[in-house]
Amino acid sequence: MIPGLINCHTHVAMALMRSVADDIKLEKFLDRTFAIDAKRTPEDIAIGASLGCLEMLRSGTTTFLDIYYSEDVIAKSVEAIGLRAYLGWGVLDERFTTQKGKPVKNCENFIKAYKNKPLVKPVVAPQGVYVCSEETLLEAKELAAREKTFCHYHLSETRWEVYEHQRKTGKRPADWLAEIGFLSKGDMAAHCAWLTINEVRHLAKAGVGVVHCPTSNMKLASGGVAPLPEMFSEKVQVSLGTDGCSSNNSLDMFLEMKFASLMHKHNRWDAAVLSAQKCLDMATIDAAKSLGADKDLGSIEQGKKADIVIIDSSTPAMVPTREDNAVANLVYASPSSAVRDVIVNGRTLLRNRMVLSADEKKVLQEADEAARLLLSRSR
Ligand SMILES: [Zn+2]
User: Domain 2-377 belongs to what topology?
Assistant: First the structure.
């Protein structure tokens, strides 16, 4: 038994856009995904979210943190399947969005409608410095403070983002965010692949958590490597995220733990730099601490919520399992196929590899069909 895994950065509804833009340069990747995204209907978003939730459920993820628009549609899919989710409504300058109305107002409406639900927690998600003005960012911060939630955003994912921001403002993104007074305790910044030690210290001082997304960064050839050892020594809380299916292309947190460890071992020429236990912690208890939810989530303890995953240690990828190698097997043997049962909030959603909370076959057929139609509309 392990605590349910926590995926701290994704765009769940993009599961419908799995493997639509691979092995191409970032600019082309963005053009292609934006073109498809612009054609999406609320039905596509709902079925994409259901597909993503099923994938996470089967790979042992019980909680995730999302950024997207139309989180009200996504919330319904999440609640139906029974996962736990922190849903961040995308906030950005009006001139950059296809959202109707003012994004920060849409976010506020979403928070008001969902703030007292048991499994879904609404979050404010200013997308990133490249589409958010100082005014938008500070409005997002204010809204999060007023509604007692937090901000989740992309930060320093690419070198282009850093240099472009520096050209416009004279400051690197995290230095600038500190200067305008945006950084707040409990916020979560995804990627952080291009940070200086000074920027790491800003995040540490403000109490901002970092969500490391190694697979997405490596697949999109971002080049930068989030400086995890420096973040640990500065006491920044670090968790893991898969990012969306158009960049990863999977929502499997077992793979994310493995790639995190391999990326840093390889980068630092140090096999001890990121242990299997630390990777498991980043996917469970450290993630719960980042979310401010460690009194309820992240470990199996009396008094916490029952978010539990049972692994079948008799499957090939887990044999031999002993007390001394169980954690290494979980992280390096990547046994998501060995997930046998999943319990969220005391409710069994997967039993003996059977999904109990959704008609899986129907969801998969509908998702396949919706993806086919979406691609033909966006050609
Ligand atoms: Zn992202």
Answer: TIM Barrel (3.20.20)
